[in-house]
């Protein structure tokens, strides 16, 4: 089977909610990374086969097939099409999978893949919940089939995060320790310049503005998001933010045609579903499935990027997989760096690639929880 290679990966800094990138139109935010990607690589823009972008809540500035409109807003070739993917939080990781699958099928050779999200302009679940309070309504209550199968079971992320914390015996204090470490790692990575190579400055913002200098005392003083979920506060949750990211995925034929140097190979890709009421547990079984399919052990994986939607999600995954926290999200995660929904998968892949190169590790695994109880898993091999 043909191989799919990653040649380049970049991202904007994450702009905090109502921060430096808040005023940037989503199309222009996506265009920014696409233009940089094309300029950094010796492939004529009219020879790209496709643009595949992840985006969630495709309304307002994010509507209208933002993969295609971002490419055009970047001033790039009219003949290149684009398509937008929604697998909830895993949208741009799925976009990476679709690009790799197109290359591995032999039907395409050069694909720009990534994602964009402006959560300041389009708050989470805007499309689904039509202005209802964040996270708590059940958007499926009107579905006869859904109610017949999941009667009276709440479907929201905060319920799931609390349920996971309770089931895996993760206390609020444990999660606050985890969150503080996420900020510490992110700030240390920025100070050491670890993100410099992967980041393209945007609107004067050159480094992530989401990591915070905070304390356990400040975290402990926060009220829960709701009294029903006493362990879940803003401190142990991912941050809303604005960002975009993009990768260049090519075939072996394209490597030779354009004299490109591959940085990584897609070693494995898969996606699995789990109970949608648990909502956030799918990365556990999805990782086990991926390792089995790839013929690997968790010990073979040198670095993991797992989305910190909530601290309890990552901590439960680490307990179940018995994986070293020191090799997980080593430069901080979404609690510090933000979770720009449709862009997060591409952001994680970008950071994972650069961290493999920095550390010298061979294999990296990426996964994240996704709406509806799903999880993608990507394993890449540094070359």
Automatic annotation (TrEMBL):
SUPFAM superfamilies: Thiolase-like (SSF53901). The keyword Transferase applies. It comes from the Bacteria. GO terms for molecular function: acetyl-CoA C-acetyltransferase activity. Residues 5-252 form the Thiolase N-terminal domain. Keywords: Acyltransferase, Transferase. It is an enzyme of class 2 (transferase). Its EC number is 2.3.1.9. Residues 261-382 form the Thiolase C-terminal domain. Coiled coil: none annotated. Belongs to the thiolase-like superfamily. Thiolase family. This is Acetyl-CoA C-acetyltransferase. The lineage of its organism: Bacteria, Pseudomonadati, Pseudomonadota, Gammaproteobacteria, Pseudomonadales.
């Amino acid at each position: 089977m043909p191989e799919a290679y990653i040649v380049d990966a970049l991202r904007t800094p994450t702009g905090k909610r109502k921060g430096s990138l808040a005023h940037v139109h989503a199309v222009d935010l996506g265009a920014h990374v696409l233009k940089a990607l094309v300029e950094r690589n010796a492939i004529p823009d009219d020879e790209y086969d496709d643009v595949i972008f992840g985006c969630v809540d495709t309304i307002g500035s994010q509507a209208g097939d933002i993969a295609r409109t971002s490419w055009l807003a970047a001033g790039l070739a009219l003949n290149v099409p684009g398509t937008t993917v929604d697998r909830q939080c895993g949208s741009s990781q799925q976009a990476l999978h679709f690009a790799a699958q197109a290359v591995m099928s032999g039907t395409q050779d050069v694909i720009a893949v990534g994602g964009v999200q402006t959560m300041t302009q389009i708050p989470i679940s805007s499309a689904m919940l039509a202005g209802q309070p964040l996270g708590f309504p059940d958007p499926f209550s009107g579905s006869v089939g859904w109610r017949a199968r999941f009667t009276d079971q709440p479907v929201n992320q905060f319920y799931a995060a609390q349920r996971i914390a309770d089931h895996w015996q993760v206390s609020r204090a444990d999660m606050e320790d985890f969150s503080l470490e996420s900020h510490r790692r992110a700030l240390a990575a920025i100070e050491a310049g670890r993100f410099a190579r992967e980041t393209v400055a945007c609107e004067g913002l050159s480094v992530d503005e989401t990591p915070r200098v905070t304390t356990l005392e400040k975290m402990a003083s926060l009220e829960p998001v709701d009294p029903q979920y006493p362990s879940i506060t803003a401190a142990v949750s991912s941050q809303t933010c604005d960002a975009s990211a993009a990768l260049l995925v090519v075939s072996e034929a394209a490597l030779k045609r354009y004299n490109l140097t591959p940085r990584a190979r897609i070693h494995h890709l898969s996606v699995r579903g789990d109970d949608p009421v648990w909502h956030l547990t799918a990365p556990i079984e999805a990782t086990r499935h991926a390792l089995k399919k790839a013929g690997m052990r968790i010990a073979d994986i040198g670095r993991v990027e797992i989305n910190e939607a909530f601290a309890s999600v990552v901590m439960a995954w680490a307990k179940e997989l018995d994986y070293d926290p020191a090799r997980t999200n080593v430069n901080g995660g979404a609690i510090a760096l933000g979770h720009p929904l449709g862009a997060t998968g591409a952001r994680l892949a970008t950071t994972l690639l650069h961290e493999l190169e920095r550390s010298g590790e061979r294999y990296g695994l990426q996964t994240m929880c996704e709406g509806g109880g799903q999880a993608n898993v990507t394993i890449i091999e540094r070359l």
